[in-house]
Write a structure and sequence with these properties.
Length: 404
């Protein structure tokens, strides 16, 4: 039985509220501390759409948030790949529920509201700057001079995590993928069945699209760019200027030309640099531990970033619930998570290399697509182990490295 009774959770995005909910279910009182002065979905114009894989939705059931999330999400039943005018349907994973795409701000709100309903306190405008540890507790120190003390501190503070640097000042930071992210809803209606997501390889960049419920087509672009731009830097340029760039980049593509031409600058979501986390050597030190993007942020190509973050929050709670001391619990948590998340990240990295094919590859890809679909894109071999993954909340966690 755990000796942990209280927790400080840094970050109110996706991983933070889920972790706090799971900890509460494990009998641990958690408070979420958010750097922004309001809920994360309201702060800084955070937007864009993210995907929740079947395994992510399944683990949300553990904290009672699955129905509320699926109610605001769009199910994606089918996927296809297009290169030029050649299009091929991709095989689906037999028996798996659909992928769910959901607006990031809406997801933040649903998870926040679920946590509040369950009695999880949130404190806003609390930017972590330091933490002090003793043998029995950890004290968080915030920029405004306030402090908080608990048995453990959980860093759910994203890819630019402050907690990661406190655990290991030499820890690697995020790496730029060479791509900038954009998203919009076009007035153009694509001629595909609703619930179909298409992955398109344009002449100058990769993009994807699907019919938007209620009309139009939602599309996202991964635009090759020579240097990383933070969200602030990317949004410092007028959205109309970015839209002109996207129109020039995708103007030779069908339907890229129509999608960019019928989108409005004032509705363009500028996401900024798409980044990934390289392997993080140390996920915990003493009474501080990382979850979500702070520890593992695969490329958006994986379709698993949010789902893995949710999984990690629940697994951490199980380990703290079942193991008698913090060290054994956090060691078990890393053992349960590291191999899985790094395998997903490696698969996504391979996909990233194909997002901007050269002229020769673009010529060959349409010819090879049917073969690739039958072999290299077999979902039973590529994603079954990811999407069918289920966390058994009721199963006890053991400290034995040979057991799960």
């Amino acid at each position: 039985m755990t000796t942990v009774r209280t927790a400080i959770v840094i970050g109110g995005g996706i991983a933070g509220p889920v972790t706090a909910l799971a900890l509460r279910r494990a009998g641990i009182t958690a408070t979420v501390y958010e750097a922004y002065p309001e809920t994360a979905n309201e702060a800084g114009g955070i937007g864009g759409t993210i995907a929740l894989a079947p395994n992510g939705v399944a683990v949300l059931r553990t904290v009672g948030a699955d129905e509320a999330v699926t109610a605001i999400a769009t199910p994606i039943e089918r996927t296809a790949m297009a290169v030029g005018r050649r299009r091929v349907d991709l095989p689906t994973l037999a028996g798996a529920p659909p992928l769910r795409v959901v607006h990031r701000a809406a997801l933040y709100r649903v998870l926040h509201d679920r946590a509040v309903t369950e009695g999880v306190p949130f404190a806003y405008g609390r930017r972590l700057v330091h933490a002090d540890q003793t043998d029995s507790c950890v004290t968080a120190r915030f920029e405004d001079g306030s402090t908080a003390t608990a048995d453990i501190l959980v860093g759910a503070d994203g890819i630019r995590s402050t907690v990661r640097s406190l655990i290991d000042p030499a820890a690697p930071g995020p790496r730029f993928t060479g791509l900038l992210g954009f998203e919009a809803v076009a007035r153009h209606e694509v001629d595909v069945e609703p619930g179909t997501m298409t992955f398109a390889f344009g002449r100058r960049g990769y993009y994807l699209y699907w019919p938007e419920p209620g009309g139009g087509t939602r599309w996202g672009a991964n635009l090759p760019y020579q240097r990383p731009l933070s969200l602030v830097e990317a949004r410092a340029l007028p959205a109309a200027q970015w839209l002109d760039t996207l129109r020039a980049s995708y103007g030779d593509d069908d339907p890229g030309r129509q999608l960019t031409a019928t989108s409005d600058a004032d509705e363009l979501q500028v996401v900024g640099a798409l980044q990934i986390m390289p392997p993080v050597p140390h996920w915990y030190r003493g009474r501080m531990v990382l979850v979500g993007d702070a520890a593992h942020a695969p490329s958006n190509s994986s379709g698993q970033g949010a789902s893995l973050a949710i999984e990690s929050g629940v697994q951490l709670a199980r380990c703290l619930r079942d193991l008698p001391d913090v060290e054994s619990a956090l060691a078990a948590f890393v053992r349960l998570r590291r191999a899985r998340v790094e395998k997903v990240a490696a698969r996504a990295a391979r996909i990233n290399h194909a997002k901007a094919p050269g002229p020769v590859a673009r010529t060959v890809m349409p010819l090879l697509m049917p073969l690739l679909v039958r072999t290299a894109m077999d979902p039973e071999k590529t994603v079954a182990h990811e999407q069918r993954y289920v966390i058994d909340w009721d199963a006890p966690v053991t400290a034995d490295p040979a057991l799960r």
